[in-house]
Specification:
Strand 7 and strand 8 form a beta hairpin. The strands form three sheets. Strands 1, 2, 3, 4, 10, 12, 14, 15, 16 and 17 form a ten-stranded mixed beta sheet that branches. Strands 5, 6, 7, 8 and 9 form a five-stranded antiparallel beta sheet that branches. It contains seven helices and 17 strands. The two termini are 28 Å apart. It is of the alpha+beta class and 301 residues long.
């Protein structure tokens, strides 16, 4: 798989980390190449960053976690599989996936893997547990782990490893839901988050620093939605019914590095610093995103 390691250019760049420049990033990756034989690094033309290829998502996420703990700040793109073209035919990497789940969850797992272009090779049931062996495109497993844990309520076991390259299996549906994108910079307010949590799963709690273009939650609908998480309740001298009702917030979802990499789409980045893991759009302002959609012809669902 391959990912883009980019210099952190968010409004909060340099607040947490000690090493933030392109030179620091290049020197760290060059040191890693001396001992990490499965890694490949190449400079990205016209951008401050590098395209880093490794043996899988876990391989690259371990490197990112090490860099984060060492004081580096970096932004990374969605992981992409490395295709091959042989005799004019496009090939993609396939993973042998072994899953063991309680019988009651087998149906939902089979349905999910079917949508991800997985092909069942074997199925066994014994003592209330179902074992499934699948051959799944590597790109089909992106984002599957979090979905698998939710679907099986944490009772399933998942193992996968590279098997071989096969003919391209066709398009795979990406993340269905859109995201909540902050349209303001400041500190999040409990009043604003209470109104947002009815239509989304939030990634932040109150009194959290946010910036324009930062992703603060997952929308319950398909389209992205600009929101103002910093909105405070207006103060008046008129006492209204229910004014003293306590604000009740659902605990936010704290994404791990691996979950964040699986969650983002190709127009989003993960901002990684020693203290924070943030999600953001590549283009921070709505005007920039609209202009990019016009240039690329991308649709906004």
């Amino acid at each position: 798989m391959t990912m883009e390691f980019l210099v952190n250019d968010s409004p909060f760049a340099g607040k947490d980390g000690k090493y933030v420049t392109n030179r620091h990033l290049r020197e760290r990756l060059e040191r890693e190449l001396q001992t990490n034989v499965g890694l490949r690094v190449e400079a990205i033309g016209g951008a401050e960053g590098f395209r880093v290829s490794g043996r899988g998502e876990l391989h690259l996420s371990i490197l990112l976690e090490q860099m984060r703990r060492e004081g580096y700040e970096v932004q990374v793109s969605q992981p992409q599989v490395i295709y091959k073209t042989i005799h004019g035919e496009k090939l993609e990497p396939m993973e042998q996936t072994i899953i063991s789940v309680p019988d009651e969850f087998a149906g939902v797992v089979i349905e999910s893997l079917g949508k991800r272009r997985g092909a069942m090779e074997e199925m066994n049931t014994k003592n209330g547990m179902t074992t499934l062996i699948y051959l799944v495109p590597t790109r089909g497993l992106l984002g599957f782990r979090a979905e698998f844990i939710m679907a099986t309520k944490g009772e399933g076991i998942l193992h996968h490893s590279f098997a071989r390259y096969e003919r391209f299996k066709g398009e795979i549906a990406k993340r269905f839901n859109g995201v909540l994108v902050s349209a303001n910079t400041g500190k999040s307010a409990a009043y604003a988050l209470e109104n947002l949590q009815d239509r989304a799963r939030l990634f932040i709690g109150p009194v959290v620093e946010v910036y324009e273009g930062m992703i603060v939650g997952e929308n319950s609908r398909r389209q992205d939605m600009p929101v103002n998480p910093t909105k405070e309740k207006k103060q008046t001298n008129i006492r209204a019914a229910g004014a003293d009702d306590a604000i009740k917030l659902t605990p936010p979802i704290k994404l791990t590095l691996e979950q964040a990499l699986e969650f983002i789409n190709d127009d989003e980045l993960v901002e990684i610093t020693p203290k924070h893991i943030r999600l953001r759009k590549k283009f921070l302002t709505e005007n920039e995103r609209a202009r990019n959609r016009t240039v690329t012809g991308a649709k906004r669902f």
